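[Meeting: bench + compute handoff]

Bench side (C.D.) handed over the final construct sequence. Compute side (W.E.) agreed to return the predicted structure before the next meeting so the bench team could plan truncations. Sequence as handed over:
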Amino acid sequence: MPTRSYLLKSVGLVTIIAAVGKVLGFGRESIIAAYFGASSTADVFFVASLIPTILFTALGSGLQAGVIPLYLEKKAENPLKANDFISLLGSFFMLVAAVMTLACVIFTKPLVMLVAPGFSDAELELTESLTRIMLPSLLFFTLSYMATGILNANKRFILPALTSTAQNTVIIVATVSFASPFGVEGLAWGFVFGAASQFLIQYPSLKRYNIRPIISFLPHGRQIVQTLYTFYPIIIAALAIQLNSVVDRIIATSLETGSVSALNYANRLLWLPLSIVLTPLITVLYPSIVERALISYNSFLGLTLRGVKSLVFLAIPFMIVMLISGNSLITLAFQRGAFDASATETTNTAFFFYSASLPFFALRDYLMNAFYALKKTKVAMYSCLFAVFLNVMLSWLLSRHLGVGGIAIASGISMLLQSLYLFCFLWHKADRRKDSAVFKDVLSEVGKLSIIGASIYGFVLWLHPLALTFPIIVEIVFVSVLVFGLYLALSMVFKVSGLQALSRFKSK
């Protein structure tokens, strides 16, 4: 099992690589914004990318989350049989991805009309064309997520972490090279090539596990059915998570032009701290949480709750900076070329409310993984279905009055309630006599951090007009240094244990 130093080193390396990937991601979004702005063309591209994105996330995320527990369980029995099992599983899901791709190519038009009911005829026609271009990316994404699950299960995190860097680099090159001569279709082809690069960069490391294609599935029918029974809640949960994004964009198509793009840009900016700081911690911890779950619930719970405290501790200062300097961050990241001050204002409306929900986005993903480790996949699935239903109702209602801001608020509320539901389920399953103190410690920690965060937010917001007299980059640095400095100082004064929890991740 991994030592403390190994886990910390892995988190550090993945964080650095993720940071490079997100910088390139911002470069990608900035270039797209410069070429297409928050325009009708940009709206069409982001909606067209929804269908392949939904499909690959539902299939790929389910694979990545589901492969690790199954693979580690098989590997503990026989490593060679574990590789054979993964070969069978990967081949079967590639067949599923091929069938889904073909079906979507045939039924592209009704699918586009479903996800973009507010588009004009010309916009629907262009969306249909771009969707057909991007649909083959589902095959590459499926391969990539399968490879990521296998490598992460074997504690090999570097190449999977580089997939974002590879994809963003390819899309940047494609946009710069093809956007002018071929328009938005050049960007769509860049999306496909970027998807292929995610698998190709992992392939050299994957070869050592002797994963090979399997053509005949009939001799393995019983094993496939048993595996699908395990996987279907994970895939439905992943699909439900993506439906939140679909619902947001469907509703946004009925708002003012540029609303879909504004939601996309705001969401991309939100994922900067999630991808750089929070997701690496979740990724590296997941195999260890799976191993703890195989030992005992008490062992699993101790590591999981330390993760909860650390995620909340890390999320709050980033949330404060984004709430205060959101407009400046959007201006710095996107406002150039076709992306004007009006687009910045619309994007900031969504970004403010997304930012307020940052801790819940991180906790939802982390707790979902914890339930997959416990093999409580149906509980995770039901929580996602509940969150989707709530998001649909709230998005439709709040967008009527608050526009894109209402859609972001709805997402935040659904994330909060889903995270609370999953946390309470863990508490309910625990031994009340032995584990109640651990849960109370988590709640006490969150309470402390909330008070510290609210105090810092109020103080820095009061000083913010002074910072606005500086150039944008200086203002962002000033606010960030002030927020993080005060946060660390007050955390030490109030003896917050979140930072200590970060250094205590080890397997016993």
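W.E. noted at the follow-up: The longest helix spans residues 297-334. C.D. will use this when planning the next construct.
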